[in-house]
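Structure first, sequence second, as always.
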């Protein structure tokens, strides 16, 4: 923050034209007493002027009130209790020198005592202090105007919002950070000024603000570090939080921060509008890629992730935050990705060498992602279908790859919800019979087919006689209305048993 002469008692005593002199006291005055902001200079010879005084001022007196039966110690004690920062005694006006009792009382109450020479009118002291206040106010307004110009220029640079927040931190002389709508720290300037433990605590508070939709500035302390937090956006549409490592702002600094908040809100709104337009464009380009023709996408985007690529589809995914995450990763590591929204979810296309990042995305956003086998853009539609198949077969958070999910079994690929419903309906007569009689026909059928329809080995596995097993197979065939002596019927039964839920 720009330096300027502070209106303090020390600054007043350093004015050579006034000739003020601090009186040495036997006891030390409180540390920092001379450097507290001095609001005004007042003069009074009343025995008790405190009803007419405000705190944080200096009082000037000639001591005429001490001619009466006034306790000097009580007098000074009242001034100290009222918050008076210093007492100036005008010498050679009413009496020569300073009363010893006054020096002792000021020492006892820690009250700075200074002399005002006869040649210096009290009004000159008050005027000198008011000039310091005016000079500081002018310096602060000049600083604010200069800072506003610097921030406006920063906003015109590439990545203008980041440059603006960094410039704000430099102008205030503090650490400045920017958190996005997902609570991620996107800017930290200076980068290593705040340690990870403190940043973690700060991030938790930011997430609470974003989750609860709080607004305006908030102050907090974390491990002896003070911060002020300012939300960007309004109500249920908060776009982020600006954090500054300080505990207070004067009016000029607050006006600067307010303007930065407005600039950040506008920049983020424009960025969101641009992002929405980009997502609509990418959705149209996805339709073109699904025709296995990447020419249009390359013409519009300039390039696509180098082949071979994998296609990934994410279910219930936050497209906006995911796009921001990929953009930050691209800026930092040069990773190329194509991302588009559709009715099926968020589709991502990435080079094979970078597909491990999909696990990181799934973990960060707590989502399911289906991933295709590596392929070229000429087979994009097939890769997209593989990703959808892997996604449908995967019921938990994380990444499911087509090769691991489907493998070589065509039955697994055919096991849709509709197929399971049909299979369970076909098995219903057998399952109802088993539930009613305990005959274990379904288990017997499965074991028999697993043993290639050989009665002796299947009966041994079940622990029953082969005639018992044959009787169960015949009974099950009748319930299912199929002839299990034929291969097509056995193949159909095996498909039903593999597809139906246990």
């Amino acid at each position: 923050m720009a330096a300027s002469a502070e209106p303090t008692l020390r600054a007043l005593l350093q004015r050579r034209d006034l000739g003020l002199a601090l009186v040495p006291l036997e006891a030390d005055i409180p540390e920092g007493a001379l450097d507290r902001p001095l609001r005004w200079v007042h003069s009074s010879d009343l025995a008790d002027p405190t009803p007419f005084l405000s705190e944080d001022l200096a009082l000037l007196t000639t001591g005429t009130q001490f001619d009466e039966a006034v306790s000097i110690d009580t007098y000074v004690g009242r001034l100290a209790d009222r918050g008076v920062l210093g007492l100036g005694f005008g010498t050679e006006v009413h009496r020569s020198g300073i009363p010893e009792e006054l020096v002792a009382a000021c020492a006892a109450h820690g009250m700075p005592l200074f002399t005002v020479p006869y040649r210096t009118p009290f009004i000159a002291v008050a005027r000198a202090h008011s000039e310091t206040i005016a000079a500081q106010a002018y310096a602060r307004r000049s600083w604010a105007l200069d800072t506003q110009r610097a921030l406006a220029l920063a906003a015109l640079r590439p990545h203008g919002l980041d440059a603006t927040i960094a410039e704000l931190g430099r102008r205030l002389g503090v650490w400045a950070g920017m958190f996005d709508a997902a609570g991620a720290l996107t800017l930290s300037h200076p980068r290593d000024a705040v340690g990870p433990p403190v940043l973690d605590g700060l991030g938790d508070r930011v997430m609470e603000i974003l989750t609860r939709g709080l607004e305006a500035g908030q102050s907090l302390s974390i491990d002896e570090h003070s911060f002020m937090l300012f939300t960007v956006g309004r109500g249920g549409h908060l776009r982020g939080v600006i954090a500054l490592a300080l505990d207070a702002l004067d009016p000029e600094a607050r006006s600067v921060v307010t303007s930065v908040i407005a600039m950040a809100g506008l920049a983020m709104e424009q960025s969101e509008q641009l992002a929405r337009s980009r997502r609509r464009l990418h959705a149209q380009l996805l339709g073109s890629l699904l025709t296995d023709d990447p020419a249009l996408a390359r013409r519009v985007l300039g390039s696509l992730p180098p082949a071979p690529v994998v296609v990934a589809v994410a279910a219930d995914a936050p497209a906006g935050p995911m796009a921001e995450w990929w953009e930050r990763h691209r800026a930092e590591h040069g990773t190329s990705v194509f991302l588009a929204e559709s009715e099926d979810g968020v589709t991502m296309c990435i080079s094979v060498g970078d597909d491990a990042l999909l696990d990181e995305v799934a973990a960060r956003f707590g989502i399911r992602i289906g991933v295709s086998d590596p392929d070229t853009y000429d087979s994009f539609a097939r890769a997209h279908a593989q990703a959808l198949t892997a996604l449908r077969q995967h019921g938990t958070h994380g990444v499911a790859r087509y090769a691991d999910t489907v493998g070589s079994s065509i039955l697994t690929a055919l096991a849709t919800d509709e197929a399971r419903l049909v299979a369970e309906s076909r098995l219903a007569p057998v399952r109802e019979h088993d539930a009613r009689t305990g005959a274990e026909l379904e288990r017997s059928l499965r074991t028999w087919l697993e043993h290639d329809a050989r009665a002796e080995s299947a009966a041994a596995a079940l622990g029953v006689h082969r005639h018992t097993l044959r009787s169960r197979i015949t009974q099950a065939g009748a319930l299912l209305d199929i002839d299990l002596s034929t291969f097509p019927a056995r193949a159909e039964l095996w498909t039903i048993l593999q597809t139906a839920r246990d």
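Margin note: Residues 251-289 form the longest helix (39 residues).
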